[in-house]
Amino acid sequence: MKHFISIILLVFISNAASALSDSLEIADEAYIQMIDSIDNSFNYQYGEVVLEEGLATITVPEGYKFLDAEQSQYVLTDLWGNPPSESMGMLFPENMSPLSDSLTFAVEVVYSEEGYIDDEDAKELDYEELLATMQEDTEAINPERIEQGYEAVELVGWASAPFYDDATKKLHWAKELKFGDAPINTLNYNIRILGREGYINMNAIGDVDVLPVFNQDIDRILASVEFTEGNRYEDFNPDVDKIAAYGIGGLIAGKTLAKVGFFAMLAKFWKVIALAVAGGFGLLRNVLFGSKKES
Fold this sequence. Notes:
Layout: H1 2-40, E1 48-51, E2 56-59, E3 64-68, H2 69-79, E4 87-93, E5 105-112, H3 127-140, H4 142-147, E6 153-165, E7 170-179, E8 186-194, E9 199-207, H5 211-224, E10 225-227, H6 248-253, H7 255-259, H8 262-266, H9 275-289
Antiparallel strand pairs: 1-2, 2-10, 3-4, 4-5, 5-9, 6-7, 7-8, 8-9
Helix pairs in contact: 1-9
């Protein structure tokens, strides 16, 4: 009798395991189809694209593709879980998409109308001293970040020291950041293009080991965005235009960015956190199969 019951139990377990395997395969297939459907919905642009109703243009660099403002806001907020923002668009490497497990970095393009930035202080800035101040400021806001539910962040140092091109009015630098106990540090590459009434911010985030790849493309990315006539730095009119309350040093320090949850969420974008969009299938896939890139 016991032998018969054991056989029945084994048959039941075998059938249950087979049914579960079939269910998991169906769920995983449905998840993949859903992700493919989202990926296929994006309409990328190439060539010259007008930004912000004529404020500036971007000539999409070779090897990249551009996602417009509306689609970029969907990616940043709905897919990647960032707070709502006023993005002008995003650059992606040609062979990658917002939901690619292989996505190494993307470049968000944002306009900040904070006034004309006087660049006189660029000639005398001590970037190591500025870094030390930024590290202290970053440490000081960690209690607030933790209280808001974000990981503590450490500014490890310059991944690429600041460089300001006085001729083109373009500034760029890169920071190396460590979030919580993450085993791999994060690269935050910043580009600022100065204009008459503010600046365009091009922000790239990825694992710190992507820096050599990004450095290969930095000149093309820097050259890709220009203000249009009437909005350029040299078009500044002191009689009518607002002047920003800070110079190049304040622009690099970027205290306002450090205070919000921006880095905490965006720094992990390549790990496919589109659960809200993928719904139950995405949750089931992550629980049963695990993420392809572990934290």
